[in-house]
Write a structure and sequence with these properties.
This protein has helices spanning 42-51, 122-126, 129-140, 159-170, 182-191, 204-211, 224-234, 256-259, 274-289, 306-314, and strands at residues 2-7, 17-20, 30-40, 61-62, 67-75, 87-90, 105-109, 113-115, 150-154, 174-179, 195-198, 216-221, 235-243, 263-266, 298-302, 320-324. The chain is of the alpha/beta class. Helix 1 (42-51) crosses helix 10 (306-314) and helix 3 packs across helix 4 (159-170). Bound molecules: NADP nicotinamide-adenine-dinucleotide phosphate (NAP). NADP nicotinamide-adenine-dinucleotide phosphate (NAP) binds next to helix 1, helix 3, helix 4 and helix 7.
Length: 336
């Protein structure tokens, strides 16, 4: 099969090339998926450039990308044969494994290949794994977000931010989102944000406080160092700021956070407990089934150009970056 992969050591470490490699076979409890679309996330280029967080030790080469969508073409022992032919989306496909979704086929645990409802296309499916599960965990893991609660999503046009708006709205919460520029404002609005604030040109704290006089119950935070002053001004008493993106700048918590009995929580999707992963998965599956999740506009690449796809994510292109691996019409019914 064709795969985009890179060596993990040597002079070409991290350089993605299209190669012909053996097609994997599904092991016990695994399915073999013919990939239609591979989704790229920041984690994919970050781990390629030395972070190794997603790879694990002693892997000589990596086929990148955690997310993707495709069709099950074979099953291993212990997996019902009637899963063959199922359209699926994949999550944590390459977490602690060598092979992700940037290939024509991937074998992975059957629980990581989740049925796509009829109304959901492969593009939507390929953008769910990391962003939607992260967003769900940020919003609901502590069980404290109620219907009617007001939420601030910092970075509402990003992949995680977009999913956070849609999942919060689906749960009955009211959402304000920050963005930069009109293009991103339109995306946040379309996702369901009631209030959209351009953090480059508007006073975020004053605008959000006017919208939520008692403060927001929860903030989903993409850039704590830059936003903590505003967060402290708008968080409600007992509110929670959940931080999902790494910040490299020093953060000084403003005293107002103590006065409002606020909490700051950090999360890394790979490292949350397995039970929490499946709770997030269940929530995403339910929202997807009810049509609450939509796809961002995409910038597309071929499998041969997977390196450029990673560069586009690193360059913060607006929307999702997707790799077209195979047209769905060419996916075989079974892999003999
Ligand atoms: N902890 C985890 O488990 C986890 C999971 C997923 C992603 N992440 C990390 O989270 C980050 C975002 O991931 P993503 O896939 O959502 O990326 P993305 O699609 O590129 O979205 C990031 C968004 O944040 C916005 N942004 C940047 N700085 C901002 C600020 N100061 N205030 C408000 N918005 C701001 C960006 O737009 P502008 O720059 O135009 O404002 C962009 O829309 C990445 O660093 C990724 O590695 C972590």
């Amino acid at each position: 099969m064709l795969a985009a992969r890179y060596p993990t050591s040597g002079p070409d470490a991290g350089t993605i090339r299209l190669e012909t490699v053996p097609c994997p076979e599904p092991g016990v409890g695994e399915v073999l998926v013919a990939v239609v679309v591979s989704g790229v996330n920041p984690t994919d280029w970050k781990s390629r450039s030395g972070g190794a967080i997603a790879g694990g030790a002693d892997i000589p080469w990596v086929i990148p990308n955690q997310d993707g969508a495709g069709v099950i073409v074979a099953v291993g022992d212990g997996v019902p044969a009637d899963r063959v032919g199922e359209r699926v989306w994949m999550w944590e496909a390459q977490w602690q494994r060598a092979s992700g979704t940037a290939a024509e086929y991937i074998a992975l645990p059957s629980t990581h290949a989740v049925p796509l409802p009829d109304h959901a296309g492969f593009d939507l499916g390929a953008g769910l794994g990391i962003p939607a599960m992260t967003a769900h965990h940020c919003l609901f893991a502590d069980g404290r977000l109620g219907s009617g609660d007001q939420v601030l999503v910092q970075g509402g046009a990003g992949a995680v931010g977009h999913a956070a708006i849609e999942l919060a709205v689906h749960a009955g919460a009211r959402v304000a989102a920050t963005v930069s520029g009109p293009e991103k404002a339109a995306l946040a609005k379309a996702a369901g944000a009631e209030l959209v604030v351009d953090y480059r040109t508007e006073d975020v704290a004053a605008t959000v406080r006017a919208w939520a006089p008692d403060g927001v119950a929860r903030i989903i935070e993409v850039d704590l160092a830059r936003n903590i002053e505003d967060d402290a001004k708008v968080i409600a008493d007992g509110g929670v700021i959940v931080v999902y993106a790494r910040t490299f700048d020093a953060v000084t918590p403003p005293p107002a956070l103590m006065a409002s009995n606020a909490s700051i929580a950090f999360m890394l999707i790979y490292k949350i407990p397995q039970t929490a992963k499946f709770a997030a998965l269940e929530g995403v599956v339910a929202a997807l089934a009810e049509g609450a999740l939509t796809e961002l506009p995409s910038t597309r690449f071929t499998l041969a150009d997977a390196g450029s796809a990673h560069d586009a994510v690193e360059g913060s292109v607006v929307g999702k970056v997707l790799i077209d691996v195979a047209p769905p019409t060419e996916v075989p019914d079974s892999q003999d």
